[in-house]
Amino acid sequence: MAPLVGDVMTRAVCMLPPSSTVTDAARVMRDQDIGDVVVAEDGVLHGVVTDRDIVVRSVAEGHEGGLLLGEMLSRQLRTVSPEDTLEEAAARMRRAAVRRLVVVEEGLRVAGVLSMDDLLPQLEPGSVAAELSHRREGR
User: Fold this and answer.
1) Own/partner pairs for 21-24, CB < 8 Å, 24+ apart?
2) Average pLDDT, integer, range 68-73
3) What distance, in Å, lies between the first and last C-alpha atoms of the chain?
4) What is the rounded average pLDDT of the residues 48-74?
């Protein structure tokens, strides 16, 4: 049986409500050493904000850190189900040119996040990319 997303996804997801500020998200990213925050309310996905979003949509536009996440989050929801295979998830990432997908159940209820770092050791064990991913986990 092919490995499933639910077998390897990261379940501990940093979530902030849309009413949080860009500064709130940046501090969470710094403190948790992560590159994205899931924007959700009551566990329901609204979108994702990445460190790149903060730079391009907030800092470069001259906004102060008080800009609300709900005003600038990525609304193109790229999701996957825990029951999808890793191959399906990898294909979805390739098509969308993204490095992570939010894992959702029952519509848009957040269950986790699947990143390239979760996928590579499973799909390409022993590869240079998988080795780099493994080293990154140990930081």
Assistant:
1) 21/65, 21/66, 21/67, 21/68, 21/69, 22/49, 22/54, 22/58, 22/63, 22/65, 22/66, 22/67, 22/68, 22/69, 22/72, 23/65, 23/66, 24/69
2) 88
3) 32
4) 85
